[in-house]
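Recap from last week: sequence in, structure out.
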Amino acid sequence: MNLADRVYLARYYEIDGPTKMGSLFGRDRKHIAVLIGIMKENGEYERYRNLTEEQYEKIQENAEEEKVND
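Predicted structure tokens:
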């Protein structure tokens, strides 16, 4: 998963849960749950959850630009 996907996952995991997130990203719920566990252990989960809307939007914009340039 790229950075934008992981940020989205951290920000909305508690709202949508592993099943819905798995469907969104084309992964099973166990994969999503394991990834969340890893992100919590290494601090990414809280860091991404606490981004401002402006920071989040900038990451999303950069990800969209990368898709266009690929």
